[in-house]
Design brief:
Distance between the termini: 38 Å
Shape: globular
Oligomer: single chain
Largest sheet: 6 strands, parallel
Structural class: alpha/beta
Number of strands: 16
Mean pLDDT: 94
Helix content: 40-55%
Length: 319
């Protein structure tokens, strides 16, 4: 049975990945680690949780040795919009965390998953049906970190045999933890705002900005499915396009309004988010993931909207 360490476990993905992994591999085989005391305390209610500064390679190594870890999910990252506010911090955190994780994976024979993103692409990338292998010239520090991460992970695989794998996540929609400073955050925030009294949401992304999105259950499935895939069949490793649904704010809001007729929406455009959204793909071609390890999403726009409204609505009722 695998022994798994999830670093950055208190974030949007980690809070849902940890219980998902526990269901598959067993409660005591999944270790959740984060830097913030409040997140470690929260994680510790339902998982084995440890405080960890991933920039401290010695401390990181001790944790891997303590629990005899053989798979690392490295979720540490400063996201796109927030990264533009602190580019130096974003580079230092994102890249140092990855290098430490790769070095430890090499020395302790661990496999490693590090998410990449649609942010790895740029304005010169084909936006419609974006190919798996194409030009990657991102205009954000977040995207630059992701491209660098893909290259570093491939380097460690080819040079040292580290079993490094990743997917390029679209914007992730979740009814668990709130997002943390990404360009696609509107697609989560809107559900929380529209279910409050007044039923109104102000969007910072232009109404016609199409971006790939994925619902969290599909995102979790993709990560684990790739990590369990036969390595002999993997050509790309770092990193696979995966796609599920593509929409713009106008289409998402129309779907919500069908279900909440008195919902209203307006726009107050954030120029940074608008520029980032404009540079990202409208929809990616994920045929390599489908062919190499059987990727297939289960959630579409309508099913996702129904589920988000139901789950978040229950949260407000029980608050």
């Amino acid at each position: 049975m695998k022994r798994i360490l999830v670093v950055g476990a208190g974030g949007q993905i980690g809070t849902e990945l940890v219980p998902y992994l526990q269901q598959i591999y067993g409660h005591d085989n999944v270790i959740a680690a984060d830097l913030r005391d409040d997140l470690v305390e929260k994680l510790g209610r339902n998982a084995i949780a440890e405080k960890l500064d991933v920039l401290d390679e010695k401390g990181f190594t001790k944790l891997v040795e303590k629990y005899d870890i053989d798979a690392i999910y490295n979720l540490v990252a400063l996201l796109s919009a927030k990264g533009e506010q602190m580019p130096g911090v974003a580079w230092h955190l994102n890249i140092t965390a990855l290098i430490n994780a790769l070095n430890i994976a090499q020395s302790h024979h661990c496999s490693i998953f590090t998410p990449s993103s649609i942010g790895a692409f740029g304005k010169n990338t084909p936006h419609d049906n974006t190919p798996q292998d194409t030009i990657m010239r991102p205009s954000t520090i977040y995207g630059i970190c992701k491209v660098t991460g893909e290259l570093l992970s491939d380097y460690h695989y080819e040079r040292f045999g580290v079993d490094a794998r990743s997917v390029r996540f679209p914007g992730i929609i979740s009814n668990g933890a709130l997002p943390g400073g990404g360009t696609t955050d509107y697609a989560v925030e809107v559900f929380y705002e529209i279910l409050k009294p007044g039923h109104h949401y102000t969007c910072e992304v232009p109404e016609d900005s199409y971006m790939d999105m994925i619902y969290m259950p599909d995102a979790l499935k993709a990560a684990v499915q790739l990590m369990e895939a036969d390595p002999a069949k993997l050509v790309h490793r770092n990193s696979f396009n995966i796609a599920s649904m593509s929409f713009c704010p106008r289409e998402l809001f129309a779907a919500i309004k069908k279900r909440i007729p008195d919902a209203t929406f307006d726009y107050r455009i954030d120029p940074v988010k608008a520029a980032i959204a404009d540079s990202w793909p409208d929809r990616m071609d994920d045929s390599c993931a489908r062919n190499e390890w059987g990727w297939a999403p289960e959630w579409d726009l309508d099913r996702m909207v129904d589920d988000m409204l139901e789950v978040i609505g229950k949260k407000y009722q029980n608050a």
